[in-house]
Amino acid sequence: MHTIQLGHSDLHVTPICLGTMTFGEQVNESDAHRILQHASARGINFLDTAEMYAVPPKAATFNATETIIGNYFAANKGAREQWIVATKVAGPSRGMPWIRNGNGDLTAADIIAACHGSLKRLQTDVIDLYQIHWPNRSAPAFGGIYYQPNEADAQQTSLHAQLEALAQLVQAGKIKAVGLSNETPYGVHEFMRLAAQYNLPQISTVQNPYSLINRSYENGLDETMHRLGVSLLAYSPLAFGLLTGKYDASGLTGDGAPAEGRMTKFPTMRAQRWGRPEALNTARLYNQLARDNGLTPTQLGLAFCYQKWQVASTIIGVTSMAQLDECVDALNIRLSDELLQAIDAIRWQHRDPAQ
Description:
Elements: E1 4-5, E2 12-13, E3 16-19, H1 29-41, E4 46-48, H2 64-75, E5 84-89, H3 108-122, E6 127-132, H4 159-171, E7 175-181, H5 185-198, E8 203-209, H6 221-228, E9 231-235, H7 262-265, H8 267-270, H9 277-292, H10 297-307, E10 311-317, H11 321-329, H12 337-350
Parallel strand pairs: 3-4, 3-10, 4-5, 5-6, 6-7, 7-8, 8-9, 9-10
Antiparallel strand pairs: 1-2
Helix pairs in contact: 2-3, 3-4, 5-6, 9-10, 9-12
GO molecular function, one term: oxidoreductase activity
Organism: Hydromonas duriensis
Keywords: Oxidoreductase
């Protein structure tokens, strides 16, 4: 599998990244280790995790995913060297009291302490890509579509202070590159401006949602990142399973809904952007388009992301090796110009219902 350079960093990753937020919730440790081994055998060299994982987030599984991955590295000689490892420091607590005792800020000290915690759990000396999971300010994310000014932002730890903390970690050899997640054009521009002004680490990546039912990235952030040389890591390319077709007939909770499907199993997930009726109804249109063109819905959803020039690496989340194989095999599918035009025709009618 070929590799792509991430932003201005020295990291070269495969166009498929193994997402691990199911490890410790839907996937037990032994199965997670088998998935890691199989992903490496299939040529993937990039994995993404976070201190917050597993998902859905809760106190009982906070830090669990990193621990599972660290145990894999410890048990398999040479395994760590096979992977470019990305993880994230959680942003302000957002109603999750187990994150820094519910603190609504993300300080420089928090970033450094969180990084040391991740290093310990991952049982590694260095994190290749360290990301801020969500902004430390009022910004539309996780389904929010409107910016709402908030005077309290002035009391939050500044972007400059956060970037200085990340610089300390780079200088100490604890991390190699810096990224953001769930970010806006303003956030990317401001971090990059501060990096240039104060000779601090440049932002190499932004990890944002990108799928057939959420292409909001293309409404300005793509130009920002292209011109600044920042790479997109696309998460939720299958929209939490909506773009696999498994909910088409049953809906998210009806008779026949997959018992182990994330949207069926976890009510908190249905309360988010993926659970909107418009999201499922629009996903059904894309899923039928796939079938009409001799593809599975999964193949269409992933091939769309793999083929887009805006995407450096697509993050796949799997619960079995069969799912992993299907995701990897879709890398060889090329969508015709006519099919891409049909995709755009649906978007013209329905825009981005899972934004």
